[in-house]
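hey can u check if this looks right to u? its 426 residues, i copy pasted from the old doc so theres a chance i mangled smth
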Amino acid sequence: MTDVLDVLWHGLRDSFLMAWEVWWALVFGFAISAVVQAWVPRERILSTLSGSGPKPVALATGLGAASSSCSYAAIAIAKSLFAKGASSATSLAFQFASTNLVWELGLVLWLLLGWQFTLAEYVGGIVMIALMTIFLRAFVSPRLEVEAREHAQQADAGHQHHAAGEQLSWRERLTSVSAWSDVAHNFRADWQMLYREITVGFLLAGFIAQLGNGFFNGLFLRHTGGVLGAIENVIVGPLIAVLSFVCSIGNVPLAAVLWSGGISFAGVLAFLFADLIVLPIILIYRKYYGTRYTMRIVALMFVTIVVAALIVDGLFSATGLIPSGPRPSRADVFGKIAVDYKLVLNILGLVVFAALLWLTQRRGESDPVCGMKVDRAKAVRLDFAGETFYFCSEHCLHAFQADARGADMPASGRTPAPHAPRGLAH
C-alpha cells in the first residue's frame, strides 16, 4: 500500500512540476492565438482555398498557423472549409498548420525540449504539408473527394469562435472593450476545448515517468543505429500517440518523457506529428467524411508523418542540429519551484488568465445547448417564455428550438443580435 501511495504522490508531484514549467507559456500562447483569431480577418482568404496549387495551400497553411492549436478545433474548422468548397489539399494543409506551426506549441516545446525541437516542429510541419500535397492523389481520388464533401455538408454545422465584426484599426482595437471581449471569448473557448487534453497530457507524463527507462527499453525506443532503427522509431512514435488519446499541446509533456527515456529525435518528431490521427479524432473524421475517405486520409497522414520525420531527422543530422550529449534527467524534465523568473512569469500568467476570464464573465452568457461562453452583444439571441437565451451559433439555436417545440415555441421566434458573430466553426 505504501508503494502505491508513493507512486501516486510522485506521479501527481511530477505532473504539477511540469505544468509549473510551462504555465506562463500556455497562457501567453493562448492569449496571442486569441488575438489573432479575433482581430485578423479571414473572409477574403476563405474564398481562395478551393484549389490545390501552391498558392491555395500556402494560404491555408497561413490561416492554420494563425488559428487555435486545438486538434479538435482544427479538424472542425477544416471540415467547415471543406464543406464550403475548399479542396482536400487546402483543408488538410490547414489541419497540419494549425497543430504544428502555432506559436504556443513552439514555445512549450522550447521550454521542455529545447529550441532544436521547436525548429524541427516548424520545419516538419512545412515538410508534411508539402508531402501531403504531393501524395494526395495516390490516396484520394477526385470522385472520393466529391463524395466526402457531400457527406461533410450533411454533417452538423458545429459551434463558432467569435471574431471581431467591427471594422476597427489595430490601434482602436487596443482600447476597445468590445474587441478585447472577442479576444477573451476566444481565449476561454480554446481553454474549454483543451484543458482536458492538457491535464491528461501532464498526468500521463508524470505517471509514465515513474516507470523508468527499463519500460522504454522494452518498447525498443532506444537508439539502435542505422536506417532500421530510425524507421522503427518513427513507426512506434505515432503508435504511442494514437494509443495515448492525447493530442495538441497535451502531447508535449509526454514527448519530453519519451526523449528522456531514450526515443530517438525522429521518434519524438513522429510522436508529435501524430496528434491528428489519435483514435477519438479518427472517429470524428468518420462522422464528418464517411469511412472510405477517413481510411484514406488517415493512411495518407501516417505515411506523411513517417516520411517527414525521417526527412527532418536527416536534415538535422547533416547540419549537426540534433541535440547531443546526455539526455535530460527526470529532474531536468519536471523542474522545480523556486524564486526565479518562472515564478514572476507564472504569476503574470495567472493575472492575464484571470483578467480574460473575468471579462467573459462580465460580458458573457452560457449557451444553454453546448455550454460555451458567448458575448451577449454579439451572440445569436432568442427571446422565449419571458427569458433571453444566447447561443454561439445557429446550430445551437436550432437544437434548442427543436427541444422546445413541445412547448409550442414558434420556429421563427429568433431575435438576432445587432452584430452576430462571423467566426469560423470549431
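DSSP finds 19 helices and five strands in the chain.
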